[in-house]
Request: fold
Amino acid sequence: MISGQIENFKNLYHDLEDHDLMLDLALEESDAETLAEVTGQVHALEGKIHKLAFDLMLDGEDDRSNCIVSINAGAGGTEAQDWAEMLFRMYTRWVDRKGFKIDIIDFQPGEEAGIKSITFTAGGKYAYGYLKTEVGVHRLVRISPFNASGKRHTSFASVSVYPELGKDITVEVEDKDLRIDVYRASGAGGQHVNKTNSAVRITHLPSGIVVQCQQEKSQHRNKDMALKVLKARLYQREKQKQDEMVQEMHDGKDDIAWGSQIRSYVMHPYQMVKDHRINLDVGNVNGVLDGALDPFIEGVLLASKI
Reply:
């Protein structure tokens, strides 16, 4: 890892020297075409240097790992469930921008609209390092699209993030500690979903952790994925016991309600997204909801290094 970062730094340094030389030649010869070309290359290099600096902040044990993300709607019925779906769309767009991959593990649809909860994996280099900054309660303020009187409404949803375990990490789970239930999957999925007990719910009796998966047609695949999520959660649980600060953060997001939010997304009476941890305000709410999360992620990471 370190050797790769050193090599990356050396390559960027050499590129910077080359561009500096080309810039001097272009200026000496008043070569507008070459000057324009070098300017574009310098802008691209600036982005690479910024990314390297960003990646160097991700030095945690699991930061390079894929991650498992869970979004849960707070109290408030349809409003909160719609907000949970909006958050899922936001993270989907962010994942697409990064060139990462999403796989849905479990999906619980809302009663009228939106989703009650969703769990998915985000696969890509530093996925956990980035998305661990999103853990907490997210608050939305808007004119309700589900209320004919057009009143302003506040909704809450919580986000949890766990590192996906690599093959080099082993978490022992004994069969005697598991209760495995199978049931018919809900929601869209065709005749197969409606007629077979392919969905799997696993309860880890010692910890009380419950995970479920219903997205695959095969009961065996759903069981394997649920076990994977369970092991990730058990691993994270043990890590949190050793890290008091992380444990406090975990405990602090138990209440999906007012006063516990990490970020507010205000769409009425003004447009603003505010991260309460770092006092960062962004006026382009639609841009943020379309996946422009890097300013918040970077800001929280920077603040954690100070």
Summary: The chain has three domains: 2-56, 67-168+248-305, 175-241. The chain is about 45% helix and 25% strand.
